[in-house]
């Protein structure tokens, strides 16, 4: 995807020798890039180090790269906290349902919009694109959700962001480039539009579907503000709101169920690190395998043939 | 595939057609005719655009059925809230109509014009917005240029993979990272103390907020921001570099005269988009990071609006502020677009 243009070797094959200055530059460049990568990674390393350190070292400011006074007390307490698990389950549930709804709406809309024979196509595209530039704003959305009776229900979380226009347009472009011969052949064989879409187009669009699925799933997994705004019952919170409340001091580490008084100072010292670690863990674990899909998704969105 | 002039005369410009070869299993692509035609019973050909709605619906009702739910979604969750902005000019009563009960004209607009706190938040928003454009926007370009000079593909790919990671973190995690690193016993204070300084209570000092916010913003976005530039870099014609080398241009001159102009369209499109979101500066992150002690620098329009509308329940007043913010946003993006079309010939649509 990224061919190296900086090669001093011309297409003719003649090797141009780098100047001494340029060679020095390349070493400095590599060193700076390594430094950038280290700085990007450091906060994650620090979270892990704090999560496994004992309170004495944390409170005296001695934990940075590696855990000191290794212990897992806080992990045991957080694992034993039924509210944490409940909220974690909520996150999984919200992510799965919201992603399913988003995919259903986005793929069908994108497929219809990709058909040039669709009368009114320009209008239907415009209706979606306009919402990229105009949106109702926080308060009107808040009133709407309250008015619909969605507060303190799952719907407030899984419905309002069901179509991302960016994802929609990416899928539309993809379907537009789908070989029409395949669809025509299928419809000559007697398949209806539904049959063509579900049995021919979707199975052959796995790559783009997977990419969109990931985009949606990550954004719903990471979401917190909708839940924070519309849910009042702690039992309904996703884990991001659980974490937010820990950070804001609404719930302190010591009020977590199962936190006995002997462990209080230890929990107070690193309950945030532990919760953060547990929240990002699924994404970090999947990241190495999935990141190329994310990148190709962005490329799909921006690249014109 | 190439990123050619993302600015085209199409409403969906930044998101243009794609090559199926990137992800699709389709080997070859055949350009379909733009408009399909229908052959009527008597053999005459009717172009799609001339079909009556009734015929179109009867022929393609299955296709139209795909539109129903998404359109309903857009209507309810996107267009109704836009109309809901009318409460900025009407009195809203809890339990009453969501569009307000009676007209009050510009009452709420006058209210925020005379509101000191609003103008305070406005100033903070502009300052943070300008700093974001000046500092956060150019850094991905520099990083992309640096990555472009790397010859080892594995090394380059590793750096890229690592630098994208923060993009996938929830803003709650980003806030948590900020709190942890800036805590009195956190890494930053460890360094300050090791250098012989005094620990700073960063999150209680208004003077530190902008630095902290911008740093976290850079951390989260710099890597991901390089993707589009790196794609644009691959489209620059190799022959240009060769010609420049023959003319005796060194690496620096090649970068300045070939590479930078080559990615200019991408830069402009992203700049316009950034200008458009200028007023909405990282609302969720600022909401998580700020506290009353640092409102003097941290309070922006969106967080002020949140407090007025949701916390203090002044619905109409907050809507008026939100509408004002949105109008500025749309004005900014339209003017940035117009200016760029006039001066450099690139625009979003």
TrEMBL record, chain B:
<keyword id="KW-0813">Transport</keyword>
<feature type="transmembrane region" description="Helical">
    <location>
        <begin position="61"/>
        <end position="80"/>
    </location>
</feature>
<dbReference type="GO" id="GO:0055085">
    <property type="term" value="P:transmembrane transport"/>
</dbReference>
<dbReference type="InterPro" id="IPR035906">
    <property type="entry name" value="MetI-like_sf"/>
</dbReference>
<keyword id="KW-0812">Transmembrane</keyword>
<keyword id="KW-1003">Cell membrane</keyword>
<dbReference type="GO" id="GO:0005886">
    <property type="term" value="C:plasma membrane"/>
</dbReference>
<feature type="transmembrane region" description="Helical">
    <location>
        <begin position="159"/>
        <end position="179"/>
    </location>
</feature>
<feature type="domain" description="ABC transmembrane type-1">
    <location>
        <begin position="122"/>
        <end position="336"/>
    </location>
</feature>
<dbReference type="InterPro" id="IPR000515">
    <property type="entry name" value="MetI-like"/>
</dbReference>
<dbReference type="InterPro" id="IPR050809">
    <property type="entry name" value="UgpAE/MalFG_permease"/>
</dbReference>
<feature type="transmembrane region" description="Helical">
    <location>
        <begin position="315"/>
        <end position="339"/>
    </location>
</feature>
<feature type="transmembrane region" description="Helical">
    <location>
        <begin position="218"/>
        <end position="236"/>
    </location>
</feature>
<keyword id="KW-1133">Transmembrane helix</keyword>
<feature type="transmembrane region" description="Helical">
    <location>
        <begin position="268"/>
        <end position="295"/>
    </location>
</feature>
<dbReference type="Pfam" id="PF00528">
    <property type="entry name" value="BPD_transp_1"/>
</dbReference>
<feature type="transmembrane region" description="Helical">
    <location>
        <begin position="126"/>
        <end position="147"/>
    </location>
</feature>
<protein>
    <submittedName>
        <fullName>Sugar ABC transporter permease</fullName>
    </submittedName>
</protein>
<comment type="similarity">
    <text>Belongs to the binding-protein-dependent transport system permease family.</text>
</comment>
<keyword id="KW-0472">Membrane</keyword>
